[in-house]
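Issue 218. Parser rejects a valid record. Input:
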Amino acid sequence: MSAGAAGIEALRTPEERFRVLPFFPWQPRYLEDLAGYAGLRMHYVDEGPRDAAPVLMLHGEPSWSYLYRKMIPIVAAAGNRVIAPDLVGFG
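Output the parser choked on:
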């Protein structure tokens, strides 16, 4: 547990829970030290060429970037950069 925004305690799912997700082979990437979200971090998938046209894949409640696990490789293989952020508290 860690202190998150405004000193609220936040639970963090242990990393090992995400290591063997079916069809989700991407390396974890995180944004940390987000303004107003001290102690929290946001996971995101970033695949494909860095200089390619980006395709932003947003999720809603109660999902996370795992929703796009079958689309990410197709869109990246087409030459696009895929960015799929997980909103804080999801995934």
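Fixed in the parser; the record now loads. Residues 72-77 form the longest helix (6 residues).
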